[in-house]
Amino acid sequence: MLYLHGGGHVSGSPALYGDFTWRIAAATRARTVILDHRLAPEHPFPAALDDAVTAYRALVADGADPRRMAVLGESSGGGLVLAMLLKLRDEGFHLPAAAVALSPWTDLALTGSSLQRNAEADPMLRGMEGARLASYYLAGADPRTPYASPLYADPTGLPPTLIQVGSDEILLDDSVRMAERMRAAGCQVELEIWPRMPHTWQVWARVLPEARAAIDRIGTFVQSKVEPQAAPLSATRPVATPPSEC
Question: What is the CA radius of gyration of the chain?
């Protein structure tokens, strides 16, 4: 499992996710690697995307079988997971068996109606913050660039994907519309809208029973998609230094 953390593309680090990543590792029965990718504004788009692609390729070069791999991310990390898959697909590289996106930020153009509709209900995010964070990350790039905002991409060929989002989030429409685009493109996608859950509630598993239930669901989904055994893959391209393990 390759994990890409959130933080609006400007914050976050592997050290903050130890309590979550061990739970994900246990639920999915997978070695879990969390990437310490570069952050904006010092390192704007596409630095984080390049880091994610390099990390994934490094894991494969180190012997990981994509058919027994999954990728997971929350918030901006969820959007980054989808962007990474798009880039790997476009480069003709082996895709993982499954992907999980938790409350993914897929539209940096901020066009979802839930930004206003859920503005009072969302306890974690504010729409005005999204515009500022997007500007730091994009640094002048078009917010509808598919590798920055996967909502505007053609998702054909992406692996089976689980999307979890809370009903009260301002980013609800980022998940709903992404799932709709994936279904229209023939992708296998499961969208779960959890009632009254806050943004990325899964990381609060120490205190929220709903978070533990969501993690169990992630484990079931990933294990159902990953091949228990597979024949050797054809040769893959050499890549750079692998990410840190957690």
Answer: 17
